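User: Can you predict the 3D structure of Peptidoglycan glycosyltransferase? Sequence below.
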Amino acid sequence: MTNSRAKPSHTKGKRSSPSSRLKGKKRTSSQPPAKKPPSKKPAKGKNQPPKLPKGRLFIVWGLLIAGMLGLGWRLYQLQIVEAAQLQKKARQQQTVSLRPYIPRRSVIDGQGNVLATDRIVYSLYAHPKLFSISREEVAEKLAPILEIQSQELIKQFNQRETGIKVTTGLTEAIAQQIQTLRLDGVELIEHYARFYPQEKIGADVIGYVDREHKGQAGLELGQKRLLERNLLNLYIRRSGNGAIMPAFLPDTSLGFDDLKLQLTIDLRLHRAARSALQQQLKKYNAKRGAVIVMDATDGSLLTLVCEPTFDPNEYYKSKVELFKNWSVSDLYEPGSTFKPINIAIALDAGVIKPNSHIYDSGAAVVDGWNIYNASKQGYGSISIAEVLQTSSNVAMIEIMKRLSTKDYYRRLLQLGLNEKAGIDLPGEATGSLKSEAVFTSKSIEAAVTSFGQGFSMTPIKLVQLHGALANGGRLVTPHVVKGLVDGSGHLHWKPDYPERKIFSQKSSYEVVKMMETVVSEGTGEPAQIPYYRIGGKTGTAQKAGPRGGYIPNAKITSFVAIFPVDSPRYVVLAVVDEPKGANTYGSTVAAPIAKSVMEALISIKGIPPSKGGKPITPKKKALD
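Assistant: Sure. Here are the predicted C-alpha cells for Peptidoglycan glycosyltransferase:
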C-alpha cells in the first residue's frame, strides 16, 4: 500500500472491477473519505484514576472501621452504661421543684377559741416617681389610715424614687381603705402572716413565728411538726422552652387539711389566773410570777401563765428573755412546798406513820450548821399533819434522819429530781440534784433537802410531783397538746404521754389529808374557800445565786394546792419571784393567787361544794 492516491479516471463508461475497487481501498471522487473508527484502547495516561498503593488503602479502611467502632462504643456508653445517669440529668433539667406556701395549722384552746392562725395581710410599697400628685398630698391621704405622721411618710418618700417599703402587716380592711384612694405609685402586696387574736393571753405557751414564718418560741417552735401540715415538694415537668406541661401536673391536694392543733388550755381560766397574778406582782413589786393548773388524772394543763410576758404579734418590741416560759426553763429551790413529797417518801419507807409524833425543839445543829424554823420557835411534840401545818424545818430534819442517806437519795432519783418533767414545750430545764457521793458524805445535804433546799427544779416539775399525790401515786406527764381536731371537733390524733408509779395510793391519800389541815388550820389559811375542802402547802425559800450561795434579801414565795380533797383532781401552783416589802411569805403573797384561780376553776368547771366542807375559820397561823 502506497501513500499516494490514484487519480480518478475520466474515461467515459469505463468501470473498475470489484477487485480493483477493493484493492488499495480506492474511492471515487464523488464519495467522501470513510472515517476511521475510534480506537478502543485509550491513550496511556489520559482519563484514568490514579492507582493507590495498597498500604494507603488499608490505612483508609482502618481509619473508617476504627471510627465506626468508636462511634458504636460511644453509643453503647450513652445508651447502656450511662443511660440511668443521663436520664436523671434530663429529668432534672425538665423538672421544676416547687414548694407552695401552705398556711400553718391554727391553734385553738380546749373550747375552740382561736389562739393562733394564718391570715392574709398586706405590705405597702411606694414608688414616688409614679406619683401623679405631690408627695405631700400622698402623705396627707395615707397618714390617717396608717396612723403614721405625714412628716414621717414624706421622709420615707424622699429616700429614693421607687421600691420604698412603707409598712407591713396591714389588715384587709386597711388595704381596702388605701385602694379606695386610687393613688398612683402606691402598691399593696398580699401575703400570709401569723396572727394571734388573744395578743398577750397565752403567749407564754404559744410562742411566736418570725417574719420568715419560722417558729421561734413556745408551741410554734416545739410543735412545728404538727403545725406545718404536710410540707412536700411538688415536681412539675416542663418542655424545652420552659413551658409547664399540663399532662404532668401533680394530682394532689397539696397536703392541705382543715385540722387544727387543740390545746388543753382553758382561755377563761388563763385570763383569771393572769389577772390574779398581775395584781399580786404589782402589790409586792415582784420581779416575775407564774401560775400553773394541772388536771392530775392525765397531766393536762388548764393554764400555764407567766408574767411579765409579750405580744407575739409584735414580738420584736419585747426583750428576748420574755420569749421563754420560765416555769419550764428556770430552776429554783422549792422550799417548804417540797415537804409533802418528803412526807410521802417517809410514809412509803415505813419510817413514820400517819399518827406518828415528832419532837420539834425549834433548832437543830447539823455538821456545825445551825438550822431554825421560819418562826424562830419550837412546837414540841407534834403530829405529822402539824409538821406541815407549822411548816417545821426542824421536825422535817428529824423525820428524814430516820431514812438512811443512801435510801433517801435513791428515792429522790426515783422521783426524777435529776430529770425533766417531759412537758411538750421547748426549753425545759433538767433538775439539779447533787451526786450520790456528795449527798451521802455529809448529813447537812439530807437535812436541807428535807425542807426543800440544796437542790433545784422547775415549777412544772413540782406540779408533776404534787399531781402524783393527788391521783394516788402516778407520775403523769404535764402537757398542753390535746391533739389534732377537724372543723367539727372530732379528734383525729392525740399524743401518748408516759406515766409511772412513784407513791403508794395509801401514802398519797394520807398526805393529801394532812395538806388539808394546812389550809384549814395552818399557814395556808388565806387559800380557804367556804364549803370546799382544799389541801395546800406554803413555801418561802431563799433564792439561790447563779454562782452558788444565796442572794441576800431575795426570796421566792409559793403556794401549791390540791383540790377538792374529797375527790382530788386539780393541782394549782402560784410562784412569785422576789416580792419586796414586809410580810412577804408564801401565805401572804402566793396563797391569795391560788385562791382566786380555784374560785375561777370552780365556776368554769361547775365543781360542787365538797362533802363535809365548812365555812372559813380564820385563826392565827405561823408564817411560811
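The chain has 20 helices and 22 strands. The chain has a mean pLDDT of 88.
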